[in-house]
Amino acid sequence: MNANPAAGILVIKLGAMGDFVQALGPFAAIRRHHNDAHIVLLTTPPYRELAQASGYFDEVWTKGRPGKMDIAGWFDLRRRLRGGGFDRVYDLQTSDRSSFYMRLFWPGPIPEWSGIASGCSHPHANPDRDAMHTIERQAEQLVLAGIPGADIPEAPPVDLAALGQNENISRFGLGERYGLLAPGGAPHRPEKRWPAARFAELAKDLAERGLTPVLLGGAGESALTAEITALCPEAQNLAGQTSLLDLVSLAQGAVAAVGNDTGPMHLIAAAGCPSVVLFSKASDPALCGQRGASVTILRRDALSDLSVAEVVDALAL
After folding, report:
1. Do 206 and 302 share a structural domain?
2. Is residue 287 within 8 Å of 134, Cβ to Cβ?
3. 15 shares its domain with 149
4. Per-residue pLDDT tens for 65-98?
5. pTM for the whole thing?
6. Strand stretches in 153-216, DSSP E
């Protein structure tokens, strides 16, 4: 399908944060290829602000993940999909859920569909797709759908100028030199976290070098960040206080960042901040590692085996 000024395009990307950030390159490529089309993103509420600020979409729909028993939500999603006037769908979620959405167009017409849904017009049929890094996998999917590979950035193009000025981060009072620390992660995956005491030691090291240690995380990680500030009072705790656009601004002003394999580190690294990302055997950077202009991956089977000295060396401050 060639770029069509009259086309309606739907892009599906529901989450999680790291996956969403690594879809920014494909989003940009779809926007360039369908430069005059009306492009709608189907996603979930946490990514509305970033998606709207990116400029890649004409509309952002956030009710993309109705619960199993949310009958009204499913009927509303079906109504919107069937009434959207879509000529093509790019399913970048490529899950069983998002593939099922093709059935919601029944009895038709069904738009052209790039993804893994059975019977779709532009399948990503590479049997090794699950062994590819997210960025390369999505790039190959788009090439098979007719978008030139040269149009697809190798790393997410997160540009503050393109995103537009968000809230002024001077409200945090960080000063000119600060480093970002992301000590959290999925609560059900504790094996992906470097010990809080090590983050506290690292925060002390940054403070001794004249950098303000800045702790990032969601509101649910406030106990973890409070544990670190108790050991390093110089650290500033911003857990639960930052939007995704704040993270972009903070990353672009930071000297460096260190964090576990967690969503904020994808955005921080993609924004160009020199980043050290810590991996345990619980996740594979070859499949999902952060990408950016200056990213170092440190991996140990157990993150408790990783010393503060090794992290500081990797930072090369």
Report:
1. yes
2. yes
3. yes
4. 999 999 999 999 999 999 999 999 999 999 999 9
5. 0.93
6. 178-182, 212-215
